[in-house]
Amino acid sequence: MLIDTNDPQVLQAMEEKKEELTEEKLAKGHYDASDIALVRVTDHLPQNGVVPAICNVPFVCKLNDIPHEVFYRMMEEQADIDESDYERATQIRNELIAQAREYSPLSTQYRSSVHCCLNGLVSSHMQGNFEGNPFVIIEPFAPHEHDPNILAVRGEDTYFEEGITLSDQAIILVEESHMDDLLTQQLNPNTRIVTYRGDQKVATEYVLMNLLGVVPELIGKDYPRDSKTTPLLRSFIDEHHYPQDKHCFSDSYRQDDEKNTVLWHRYAEDFYTYLYDKLGDGQDHKKEIAQLINGSWINDNDCAVFKKIVDTMGVEAYHQAVTEYNQEIQAKIDQGIYPTNKAIMNGAPLGIASEKQDTK
Fold first, then answer.
1. How, if at all, do strands 192-197 and 171-175 pair?
2. What is the largest CA-CA distance in the chain?
3. 99 contacts: CB under 8 Å, gap ≥ 6
4. pTM
5. Which terminal CB of the chain, N or C, has fewer other CB atoms within 10 Å?
């Protein structure tokens, strides 16, 4: 099945379908679980029918760390930015942010929960950019109405502890150019695959209405935008007495944040140890490396220390070192031999340097 969101006839039919469904739900007067769907946009597919929390899979990412900050500042100093042209200046700075990320080592993010929206696609905001993710997982809420691992139910952020086991009614919406990505994945054979062309949000609404009979909602950063049907959604949540804590105020977030601090320090230790080895004898920098390992997040003093090391190595040599470091980690992930964050928290070696030290 291919949904072409550029087809005017498809768009017209969707408008009519939404009006019809809305009237049907309003006449019914209340929502039950069959009127609700979980919607998750992602760049990771389910594994054997499970959407895992990223603490349960090998997960690495780049942070806005000291190397990123230092190289961004270096690039910004060399860029010809006309402050009178705000839009162009903003564009240039965004490009520099992306370029500076090439100089950052891989790190991680600990997250023990899996997050979805109800009846709509998440909107990008300051705390998260979801644009460009090629997959949308759409799962009826009814099989999860009484899941013991529900941590909170909110229109813009319903989250589950550890992961979500999908039902045989799950649908994965895939942008047509990414269909080849499915070939190497261990998907549940019952999972329905739907492809789309064009606008992801429109395609998601098409699936919700035509395959699940659900009225789509417009999801804002903090709640679904008011519509004729949002009172029905809110009443369902209230009547079931689900927890409704915002994630940033939850125990789950606090506990994950504590683990993040530990993991970020361990990744920093691993990378700067690796970098110290690349400096050769590097004794003059031993104290500076120790400062970077034990320093606070980003501050001018640590940035100056890191800049001195880069100046000693040279930009090209540093770039080669960080690229090789990242490639070694990625190779281990591709080989299926890299630890999960849970395993790392329990003492498993991460990165490259710590593993090499363990084998000495």
1. parallel
2. 77
3. 71, 75
4. 0.80
5. C
